[in-house]
């Protein structure tokens, strides 16, 4: 009875877990049901398709990750410190995966984006929304950083925020191909460059007044 | 006879073409053989597995792309102009795909990295080698740029080159999730930031002597 009532959640959890290290196409409904300990016959009682279940798995993944994104970015302290903590947390997730499973599994959102964008329009549309939310969260923090004078005002844009997230996803790809989370140690110094923050040390409160201390 | 002698090449070509927009796992040997117009029975005469064929498809893809990378990066002219032309060419590939097929298919190397790194060790190892080659090619050009004084010497490193390629792969991911190659219009200005070149306009030949013209 208790198990039946949680069957939907178990299917979503099993999908998220399996798809982190395996592709959508390599997974069948039977395998997902077996992992979730749900009878295959009842799968279509909960979901009309594997695609529909995948969108729910994306939602569950992002709901958990969004909690982390908003908590780190809305914390107290200078904006760049908050952004750094978020990126550190993302890197830490990959390190922990390597420690527990032996592999850097990467980001479920990135994995599904490259596998399914050309194949499953509904999945692509949901992934686009999630990435747009990430970018909006980062833009808010970049605006704070510009207010604090630690980045130039012209870098507090959605375009720059997208570059920051793109660089994160790209380095996660390299961590995955090298199966080495140490690749992500480069995340922060390069993010500072993308933000034009190298000339704006965090203790500077007057925008654009510093010499090019780190480059000169 | 002629067709038989090119069967191996046709299998490799068909695989590269199919895997650009579809995942490895979604493709069966039968479908690849059908596209290549090769009898399924003779597949294993040429390749011991789909994995082995995939590695050959990666090799063929990179052989063609490497020609483009070396041609652009070894051309005459300032190093940053050469790097820019390479990145423009990469963006142009995605634009052309969108025009011809209606979808931004992304990069075969990135697609396979996220799908297979945790599943197929031999494919992962080959992809790692290819990305290492890309990084080495970019490092050579960054060294030229440092010699020309258009980027700071400390940015002419493999670490920076990896950030440039990671940012490219990340933006290609965004172009794919948005099915819009215009995302790649941001590629060059952000690459300049990663290179610390914003303070080093291409016509400056004396390193580190410029004021922070573009940031101030």
TrEMBL record, chains A, B:
GO terms for molecular function: DNA binding. Keywords: DNA-binding, Transcription, Transcription regulation. Residues 28-47 bind DNA. This is Putative TetR-family transcriptional regulator. InterPro entries: Homeodomain-like_sf (IPR009057), HTH_TetR (IPR001647), Tet_transcr_reg_TetR-rel_C_sf (IPR036271), TetR_C (IPR011075). Pfam families: TetR_C_13, TetR_N. It comes from Streptomyces glaucescens. Residues 5-65 form the HTH tetR-type domain.
